[in-house]
Amino acid sequence: MSEYLLEMNGISKSFPGVKALDHVTLKVRPGTVHALVGENGAGKSTLMKCLFGIYSKDEGEIIIEGKPIHIANPYDALTKGIAMVHQELQPIMERSVAENIYCGRFPLKHGLFIDHKRMYEDTERLLKEVKMNFDPKVKLSTLSVSQMQAIEIAKAVSANAKIIIMDEPTSSLTQNEVDNLFEIINSLRKKGISIIYISHKMDEILSISDDVTIMRDGQYIGTWEAKELTIDMIVTKMVGRELKNLYPPKSNIPEEVVLEVKGLTSISEKSFKDVSFQLRKGEVLGIGGLVGAQRSELFEAVFGIRGIKKGTITYKGKELKIKRPHDAIKQGIALLTEDRRATGIFGVLSIAENISVASLDKYVKLGFLNERKVENLVQENVKKLSIKTPSSKTKIQTLSGGNQQKVIISRWLANDPDIFILDEPTRGIDVGAKYEIYTIIADLAKQGKSIIMISSELPELIGMSDRVLVMCNGKVSGEVSKEDATQENIMSLATKFA
Amino acid sequence: MQKSSKINKKAISSFVQNNAIIIIILMIIIFVGIKTDNFLSMDNFKNLAVNTAPRFIIALGVSGCLITKGTDLSAGRIVGLGACIAASLLQSSDASGKVYPNLSDQNILLVFALTLAICGVFGFMNGAIISFLKVPPFITTLGMQTLVYGICLVYTGSKPIGSLRKDYTRIAQGSIFKIPYLLIFAVVCGALMWILYNKTRHGKYMYAIGGNESAAEVAGVNTSRVKIKIYTLAAVLYGLAGILLAAKAGGTSVQMGGGYELEAIAACTIGGVSTNGGVGKVSGILIGVLVFELLKISLQFLGVESSYTYIVQGLVIIIAVALDLRKYLAKK
Asked: Residue A280's closest CA among A255, A252, A253?
């Protein structure tokens, strides 16, 4: 038997105008966690889509347990022992756990009717295997994201997968949930299942994986054992140059209080309660907390997306009445939302349209848009934030995550707001682009803008904030100054009421 | 050498794929032009223009709803209502069985304005129900379709309305320098809508809502207001089409416009207005409407019995959209 469970040799794949994969190699040993790392656009996802049969490769061979195979489509991949847990889970929300797991291959009795009893029993056993104890009959919509993910993994196990691809499995998990996931991964590893683990989080990669394959610009850079590597080494190899600092130097000086929130309470019982805080001019206020701490909900309410039952928002001494985002924007508040695809970008529209949509009022004369002015605005921002795009007419959905984020930041810059609420500003963005976003944040603060930065990445929170406000279960559980901001301090506040 | 021919082949195939519908239309025209005598005549062109014009105006109205991921099933019945209101107020004084026997001759522009305003109110209701009560557009406009039809039945007593004033029918039947007035109406509407879609905030907001409604709201777009404007404007355009159709036919009944919404939706879709929202151009809508009308006239010229034309039309809708989707599917 071959040393490797899976070998992908010389895989190439081209799309119109780009060579996405150029003779890439990936060799996975049985019973290991194999991390696949690279910046966005490095070709990780494309490689995995070739393996899972979503794309067909142009060149190269795929060998499983020494035998060359051809994978026609995802169903074919599943039957050949390859399963994929997608970054964006696609559960059937209104059906039960068991139905979700067995959808497409329900156990039958008399060859005609669904054997519900067996389905529920099998599901229960499976869930135990992945250390999850819940009722196979509950609807998926009642579960948390991490539980849905566990079900996805259970589904892969039930299909007798030998290789499970996990695409950024921790991007929306809390630290506890990540620990749970790692336990599941460890038990799978013991069973001889190999896991291909795609992630941007270096510390996770080093703690969970056995081997690391690094890709850059569609090319194979190399494979190393995880214990030989450090974060710096991975980043250097990924980016192809040395990154000196993870965070830019900051020279902002927080001044007087501009925004004061007092006793803000959501109309929803389960959401934020009695939240008070202050924000200063030229300050970066970090907002820490676990997923579910209601941080996004709080600031969406400040921005007029969600309803408020009680409490006041005072801006420069004046109480604000904000009913919808339009009101907040008029007051000089901007919100970069957490979920870029759902509430940020207009995928089918151009860069120009995406940048100008919130500031069109400025470019109207007698009811008509001044297109030259709009184009100037776009060009100015493309240059200022170094947005990589072929032209201003390019559809935003063809850009990488980092460039999309810069486009949305440009949208808000065009309005020249005084307060920027940035909700997970670097989520799903590669290392190089992250640094650029940090630089933009530092520049804005230096110009005297006030920044609220919600982040689940503790290093980023600590590296960028002048002050960190921590939330837990919808309430403010404490505040940490720049000097005292450590991972331990923030985590203990984040779990205070848990 | 071999490489360049490969590229050429690729370029040609992508050109064919991107313009499949236009190429098919041209082929139909050439084929029917060769097979029959009078197809490529000025008269036939006029006939085509006059038939296409009102349908183009209706399709323009529906397009805004489709671009914002909505739809408007009440279009046809609002066309009918517009036709009936205008016709009832513009019958010639000596006609028998008038809707308003004692009505003196009214100012024609005033009647048009009133008709458009009444139609607009129904569009406004569509928009308001969709925006504020959050009833899905399909259901809202389905309800409105039946409701408007009922109102029209009550208003006319389900009797046809004929003997329209000459100065009214002339707006649809007349022409200047051999150009039918109807064609001028359609061109003006098309031009105005093109400007609205491409040169104004309203247009940009409309595409933004279609592209991602939540993102539009977050970006400060008053999505309710924009949608209400879209549905109101749509209904005004249906009203205009109704006025023109009644004038063209010289009379009308409650049945006027029945089913036109489906034709308009089909034409928009054929013309590349995406049902996924955010995409659609005035030029595409024109092409979509033309495909339909050309097809009808071609079949007529070829002597195909009119019952068969429905079968062909149905097939064309499906094939045209399937071809159009190839553009996007091919990229995967």
From this structure: A255
pLDDT in tens, A436-480: 889 999 999 999 999 999 998 888 888 899 999 999 888 899 999
A364 touches B at CB < 8 Å: yes
Instruction: Give the model confidence (pLDDT) of A187-226 as tens digits.
Output: 889 988 999 999 878 888 888 999 999 998 788 999 999 8
B276 to chain A, closest Cα gap in Å: 10
Per the domain annotation, does B2 fall within a domain? no
B311 occurs within a structural domain: no
Distance from CA of A232 to the nearest CA of B (A): 36
**CA nearest to A57, candidates A29, A32, A22, A83:** A22
**What are the angstrom distances between the C-alpha of B324 and each of A132, B10, B19, B245?**
47, 18, 9, 31
CA-nearest residue to B219 within chain A is A358
Token pair 């009936």: residue: B84
Question: Quick check: A326 contacting B, CB < 8 Å?
Answer: yes
Query: Cβ–Cβ of B207/A361 closer than 8 Å?
Result: no
Domain map of chain A by residue range?
6-239, 256-495
pLDDT tens sequence across A326-339: 999 999 999 999 88
> Which residue among B200, B215, B277 places its CB closest to the CB of A369?
B200
Are A211 and A223 in contact by the 8 Å Cβ rule? The answer is yes
Give the integer Cα–Cα distance in Å for B120 and A14: 52
Q: Which two tokens stand for residue A192?
A: 């001889």
Q: Is residue B22 part of a domain?
A: no
The 10 Å Cβ neighbour count of residue A161 is 23
Which residues span the domain enclosing B235? Answer: 53-257
Distance of residue B283 Cα from the nearest chain A Cα, in angstroms: 18
A113 contact partners, CB below 8 Å, separation of at least 6: none
Interface pTM, i.e. ipTM: 0.75
Token pair listed for B317: 């809708």
The strand pair at A364-365 and A368-369 is best described as: antiparallel
A349 touches chain B (CB under 8 A): yes
> Exposed, middle or buried by CB within 10 Å (0-12, 13-18, 19+), for A90?
exposed
Q: Is residue B286 part of a domain?
A: no
A6-239 classified as CATH 3.40.50.300: yes
**What distance in Å separates the CA atoms of residue B45 and residue B294, rounded to the nearest whole number?**
10
**Residue B215 and residue A349: Cβ atoms within 8 Å?**
no
For A256-495, CATH gives 3.40.50.300
Strands (E), A138-289: 163-167, 194-198, 211-216, 219-225, 257-266, 275-280, 284-289
- pLDDT tens readout for residues A230-267: 888 888 888 776 556 678 888 888 889 999 999 999 99
B293: helix, coil or strand? helix
Q: Which residues on chain B place their C-beta less than 8 Å from a C-beta of chain A?
A: 195, 199-201, 204-205, 207-208, 210-212, 214-222, 274, 276-279, 331-332
Give counts: helices (H), strands (E), chain B. 14, 2
| Three-class secondary structure of residue A270 per DSSP | coil
Counts of helices then strands in chain A (DSSP H, E): 17, 24
**Pick from B67, B89, B68, B121: nearest CA to B233:** B121
C-alpha to C-alpha distance for A490 and A484, rounded to whole angstroms: 9
Whether residues A344 and B218 touch (CB distance < 8 A) is answered with yes
Q: What is the DSSP string of B179-233?
A: EEHHHHHHHHHHHHHHHHHHHSHHHHHHHHHHH-HHHHHHTT--HHHHHHHHHHH
**What per-residue confidence (pLDDT) applies to A169?**
84
What does the CA dihedral A37, A38, A43, A45 come to, rounded to 10 degrees? 50
Q: Kindly report, residue by residue over B54-74, the tens digit of the pLDDT.
A: 999 999 999 999 999 999 999
Please work out, in degrees rounded to the nearest 5, the angle formed at the alpha carbon of residue B292 by the alpha carbons of B290 and B298.
Answer: 95
Sheet with A475-481, side-by-side order of all strands:
A333-336, A419-423, A450-454, A284-289, A467-472, A475-481
